Amino acid sequence: MKKTQATILIIDDQEEILIAGKLLLKRLFETIITCSNPKNIPEILLENEIDVVLMDMNFRTGYEDGKEGVFWLKEILLLKPKTKVILMTSYGSVETAVESLKLGAIDYLLKPWDNQKLIDLIKDAIKQHRKAKQIVEVKEKSLFVGRSSSMEKVYKITDKVAKTDANVLILGENGTGKSALAKSIHENSNRKTEQFIHVDLGALNENLFESELFGYAKGAFTDAKQDTIGRFEAANGGTIFLDEIGNIPLHLQAKLLQVIQNKEIIRLGESKSRKVDFRLITATNTNLEKAVEQGLFREDLYYRINAISVKMPNLNERKEDIIPLLHYFIEIYANKYEMDIPNINEEILNQLQHYEWNGNIRELQNRVERAIILAENDEITLENLGFDYFLPSTHSKNTNNLNEIEKQKIVERLLFFDGNITKTAEDLGISRASLYRKLEKYNISN
Ligand SMILES: Nc1ncnc2c1ncn2[C@@H]1O[C@H](COP(=O)(O)OP(=O)(O)OP(=O)(O)O)[C@@H](O)[C@H]1O
Q: Which domains does the chain have, with CATH numbers?
């Protein structure tokens, strides 16, 4: 039988489970890696392209609370967010297993496992992993959809800077594509074959800041059960992207500055320093210059991270890119939800181009995802996109246009009569048939 090209990592402290798992799975899948010591997980993940992890929730005999499994699950998903994790558990810890599903595990399996069930779960997980990877690949291939003049200015700078090791600060509102730009700088740099580590400092609890970034030694604090590398070490040789840099509290800025300057980190609970080689990219939606003036952001850190700065334009400043981005996301999500590419009519496209996209590309992306899920008869409507009958626009170039006035009137009366066609037609003094024709003409969905 031809084996499936996939790499499965089995993690369990019991050798007999590892052997049984390997024997069963190696008949069907190309590569099976086993690991009895969870401390080795980060290294294995960074060195191999793992499709599926099959992991025990309890590593120490006598401990059935599953906490270590939860800890390692979070670590795996931080390092490799697309890897699919299946947990193995005993009856006692089903609750924790269910909790782990919320954290991102795709399923759990009761021990002793049923061979066929395990194989089916792994096959399904491989499919899911392939799909997730495919989406990222399509995304990366065509990343930086859009050739507006304001984006051309951005490319001009990033093309020059990508190949250097200069620190880059990316400015811009939420959802403008700062993270995507950081990734693309890395992809075009000499470090592209190494790790790109994205750290969202805005989401990082202040107490976890140091341990997450610099790592820690076993026993450094109550929950420090094993030596753990931090994000800077994980980025060694590659790029570290510190998102929302403006959110770092002042007292931690000095530590960060030191690491950036010396390219050395000291893990929490250790005294020896370790050399790390990284390229630094940062991003913020706050006005750092102002924060410096107000004494909220260290000036020396600001100058250190700001060798080159690039401003991502708002989507409203790159209107030419709206339609290409829209088609791009339609393709991505139609692919994700296994649907045919739906149509979208000219009138809606026109309205979308004049809409004020305050949530920028992320808003556009979210609306398209919603529309793909809700679309009927292969047609995207404004309602599918989460709008009422027509879009509020700050560029109402059509407000003097008779058609637009008529359309607005119809929408207003329809809303007033809760979508009742007979009452709306009566109120407007036209027949129901005529109202239907107008609804179709103006693409008003009821
Ligand atoms: N030019 C682009 N082409 C295709 N997709 C893009 C482009 N720019 C951004 N995106 C997508 O739009 C979404 C928002 O982008 P991103 O997360 O990079 O924004 P951000 O500025 O970092 O947002 P935040 O400040 O909220 O973290 C992402 O899913 C990203 O992949």
A: 4-139 (3.40.50.2300), 149-313 (3.40.50.300), 330-441 (1.10.8.60)
